[in-house]
Write a structure and sequence with these properties.
Helices cover about 50% and strands about 10% of the residues. By secondary structure, it is of the alpha/beta class. The structure holds 2'-deoxycytidine-5'-triphosphate.
Length: about 230
């Protein structure tokens, strides 16, 4: 049997493993990013990279994630600093798979969380500028591959209900206002283009419940699996 190789696949094989087709999954806290990633576990050609929350929870025995929520003035800065490092490691992680699917990115840290922390006063302007210098430095010196962004778009109400339901210890003190503001920041970035978007954005309706969201996930397969289709 002769296997027909498409132009897409040819381009991909010649660029492996340096530049796999890279997809960022973005969306508010509670939008269902983890469930979205799980949907793609069945495909062998995908390198799935989940967010390193466990590393934020245990940095040599220190739970930076918890400290960031409990004492934001003091710990938001080291937390976002560490998030950036752990995300950068994922961005530059090589894989022999043709597709890399990542939960979040350095970009949402920068354009959503760090912006929020500046505007609510948890990050001093000086701290904010140090982080910006890191982002600019990384941007100038590393190739951060991104070919598609999947935006799991929810209403802040739905995201907040899910967060309450899953009841992560660290997030018990997160108020609705925080989720609402993060929603606006995601919208400003991914829908209105107020901040730099490293690739095209595919918007999915992530308000749907588990029983009905499969059709949305399947709708995204064509775009996510494009290099191997
Ligand atoms: N977080 C943060 N700053 C970042 C990234 C994440 O403060 N740069 C926090 C927000 C949440 C937790 O980390 O408390 C994890 O948030 P995510 O939205 O990244 O992941 P979830 O597990 O909440 O995603 P989902 O519910 O969509 O699966």
């Amino acid at each position: 049997l002769t296997k027909v190789i498409t132009a897409n696949q040819m381009a991909l094989f010649s660029s492996q493993p340096k530049h796999p087709f890279t997809v960022f999954v973005e969306g508010n806290i509670g939008s269902g990013k983890t469930t979205f990633l799980k949907h793609f576990e069945k495909f062998n050609d995908i390198c799935l990279l989940t967010e390193p929350v466990e590393r934020w929870r245990n940095l040599n025995g220190v739970n930076l994630f918890d400290l960031m929520y409990k004492n934001p003035e003091r710990f938001a800065m080291p937390f976002q600093n560490y998030v950036t490092l752990t995300m950068l490691k994922l961005h530059i992680q090589e894989t022999s798979k043709p597709i890399k699917l990542m939960e979040r990115s350095m970009f949402s840290a920068r354009y959503c969380f760090v912006e929020k922390m500046l505007s609510n006063g948890t990050l001093h302007e000086g701290m904010y500028h140090v982080l910006q210098e890191w982002y600019n430095f990384i941007h100038d010196h590393h190739h951060v591959q991104c070919d598609l962004i999947v935006y799991l778009r929810t209403s802040p109400e739905v995201a907040y209900e899910r967060i309450k339901k899953r009841a992560r210890d660290e997030e018990s003190c997160v108020p609705f206002e925080y989720i609402k503001d993060l929603h606006e920041l995601h919208e400003n970035w991914l829908i209105h283009g107020q901040f730099f978007r490293p690739a095209q954005v595919l918007v999915l309706d992530a308000n749907l419940d588990l029983e009905n969201i499969n059709s949305e996930y399947r709708r995204s397969e064509l775009s996510v699996l494009k290099p191997i289709m």
